[in-house]
């Protein structure tokens, strides 16, 4: 028998660095908290980079009842980012890495009265990842802490946080059977292992054949088996597993159990407004409900190991998962060991989850690091480690857009992926299409995916002429309409993941009308509001629940005589009623557009079968300024309404490449850019030394480049006037 006690209550929290003795002495002055707990639940998401980062202490008395048992271990499901565990003032373990589980044994250190003290640190350092990334590095004991009491003969608990049991199902699809290997680690002579009502007594490892195997078959039928293992002492553990076959083809994309199964889904961070990363099981379960509602069949669990509860939910719900470690943005010379230990823990702890299809080695690691031998070697070491520990899964990585596609780093993982933000941070939407077309044509034998794409939207902001950078809900929707189509036309993409399903805390951000938030979510940080783009994907992916969704519900006051009413639906016909009168009926797929005259205030209703949705729109004689975030950008846009530009002459609407191809026009932009470069030397150097960036810039319109560089409207107009004087050949 093993007894597990969750240490939820009774903790004292001291928000200061001190010695272990001081922490124990001052514990009663500390704040009473329950664990899971983070000290950054509020300051980690209100922006400005000033959230508390340092060492804090958690102290708790352990009662006699809690410490009873032959052998006693303590388990931390997540202590961010570095932790030291003390019992009665004696240090028992140090752990680096904020997202993996670790344990240590208490037995020989127990006294009559026992005080547990844990120091946790989330400060900058040069060894433990992540150090540079677009999310808040919450500190705390933000996942459960448990005591595990076991008999003298028990399953292994210490090594890399192992569950003590490893299940490897290998499926033979043709004969509809599976060979299941169950390995266990323990200090007894033998173990009794049971799978599918068959029990074997072995030293450590047993093999089973399951005939007529019931497959774990994605969203439709995520069937789970259980393997259990028991020692004569009574210690018993079990693991759920699933029998499935994952495969990737460079031309046809992803396969599940031998059939084409394009992975289309979203990424998720583990955090929630007001709670930081200290989520309860209910919070995780609610996230999963939203994912099921959306109809995604894959999740990228970024950028670190998520809670075991969540991988369990993925197993149960049939999501195909990309799991990864926080080796992100910037390679650290002293961080190699930590990448390996985090990967070892991730694979050891998550191996049995049938939902996990790939191990992610790193994310945008070349964003702030050169591709040199040290970086390559670190990736090779990680890749080899994954293959040594797991012969059943593929490795991958998420590359930053400016990484050259012929970089040797792309040859390390089994399959690849790119994060592209054309149409948001830079460039135009079509560049996403072009990128993949070129890549696929150049490397037809390589498997490629789309690991991130997205656009920020604050649902308070609206426009009838949405454009990149305006933070409107409407631009985000348009952006994703383009991307959805782009993806549907490219079935070779093995997986695509929207960045991100939920808005999340990014302490360094202060933009789009919110502090400390990345607003690329399809759903707000508090999970209460589904932005229009959410319904677009739901219309494309959820085929179970018929619905119609009217877009622009929060865009009520409209200064236009005709307005576009857009409906997202998974039905194939939509009727639109204006003030209860049938206005039009349209057949189609996913997106339905109507042009409706605005005379005053109107009730709009969309109907398809049983499904319906309503909203109100109103004609106003002056634009409602409260919908506009960045008035500066908007005025530039208005000025550039297409009609004012003579297409026979050059303009800022041409791409840098087109302009440079003409010597006269090229001279003008080069002079302009040289001036800008002398003012911002570092950026200019980065561009000069990066041919991929240069090529990409060549495909961007001059106006988008100038706007991203922060050029004011007046200067853009001036350059445009000069360019309009040069005739195109
Ligand atoms: C990325 C990063 C992700 C960021 C995202 C963004 O490429 O991988 O961590 O949050 O871009 O929104 O900028």
Main β sheet profile: 8 strands, parallel, barrel
CA-based gyration radius: 28 Å
CATH architecture of the largest domain: Alpha-Beta Barrel
How do the strands of the widest beta sheet line up side by side?
23-24-25-26-27-28-29-30
Mean pLDDT: 94
CATH topology of the largest domain: TIM Barrel
Ligands bound, unique: (2S,3S,4S,5R)-3,4,5-trihydroxy-6-oxo-oxane-2-carboxylic acid
Q: What's the quaternary structure here?
A: single chain
The amount of helix comes to: 10-25%
Percentage of residues in DSSP E strands? 25-35%
Distance between the termini: 84 Å
CATH class of the largest domain: Alpha Beta
Number of domains: 5
Low-confidence stretches: 631-642
How would you name the CATH homologous superfamily of the largest domain? Glycosidases
Write out key terms for the chains shown.
globular, eight-stranded parallel β-barrel, six-stranded antiparallel β-sheet, 729 residues, binds (2S,3S,4S,5R)-3,4,5-trihydroxy-6-oxo-oxane-2-carboxylic acid, 23% helix, Jelly Rolls, alpha+beta, Immunoglobulin-like, TIM Barrel
